[in-house]
Write a structure and sequence with these properties.
It is built from 15 helices and no strands. With 240 residues, the protein is mainly alpha-helical. It is globular, with a radius of gyration of 19 Å.
Length: 240
């Protein structure tokens, strides 16, 4: 059994839960079982301790799934690992990520994850990562789809990918709430960063109406757009 400071991970989590806020966590992650309400700052500190303990492989082999915070912790540890550099290390790391993914059961768990090495890692392996994320967007499970959408937003809103990225977002037909929210969020972010191609995309009305309108609403909530731009965007809202 993996132990940290001679204690199993669930013991650490239940101790941290004593100063948590389960009511707030349950409110923002409705319907998710096993929510302790641990503060993210405490979970991040625990993840750092695991990463520094010298036995992170043992932790990953045994990472629990029963509590939301166990899965959040797993996502944070995977995000904090050193950037894999050799082809073998890259594939080994991506296998760990794909082992985690089916366990995710809330938007908090998917949104807490980023690739080890972050933008540098993705830049070094952009073709491999792009293929992975676009495949996730076609998955049957809600949170595989959401993670593909959100990570593509994080790493691939650029001139080289914007048209293909918007094509993939338009092709998402999963109707789960947190998938539609992710598409709207991502398209809003595309508009904020690259308005010209994204406005043409919105004018073509390729998203489902409720997602289209939500994307416009999210873009208009941003402080990064001026009033005139927001007025023009609101005129693109769809009826029905």
């Amino acid at each position: 059994m993996f132990l940290l400071d001679q204690l199993p991970i669930p013991v650490h989590l239940y101790r941290l839960a004593e100063r948590g806020n389960p009511q707030f966590a349950q409110r923002i992650a409705p319907g998710v079982e096993g929510v302790l309400g641990i503060r993210m700052s405490d979970l991040r500190a625990l993840a750092r301790k695991i990463l520094q303990c010298g036995a992170v492989e043992d932790y990953l082999a045994e990472a629990g799934t029963g509590l939301m915070e166990e899965r959040l912790l797993h996502a944070l540890v995977l995000s904090g690992l050193p950037r894999p550099k050799t082809p073998e290390a890259v594939e080994r790391y991506l296998r760990e990520v794909e082992r985690f993914l089916p366990r995710a059961a809330s938007w908090m768990e998917t949104d807490a994850f980023h690739f080890a090495g972050d933008h540098r890692f993705v830049a070094d392996h952009s073709g491999r990562i792009w293929a992975l994320l676009t495949a996730w967007m076609t998955h049957e499970r809600e949170y595989e789809v959401r993670l593909g959408i959100v990570l593509a937003m994080r790493y691939f809103i650029d001139e080289a990918h914007i048209l293909a990225l918007l094509d993939h977002y338009a092709a998402v037909r999963h109707t789960a709430h947190y998938v539609e929210m992710a598409v709207a969020w991502a398209v809003a972010e595309c508009y904020i960063r690259l308005p010209e191609p994204t406005e043409a995309f919105l004018r073509a009305e390729r998203l489902m109406p409720r997602v289209h309108n939500l994307a416009i609403r999210k873009a208009c909530e941003s402080f990064r757009l001026d009033a005139a731009t927001k007025t023009r965007l609101r005129a693109l809202r769809r009826k029905g």
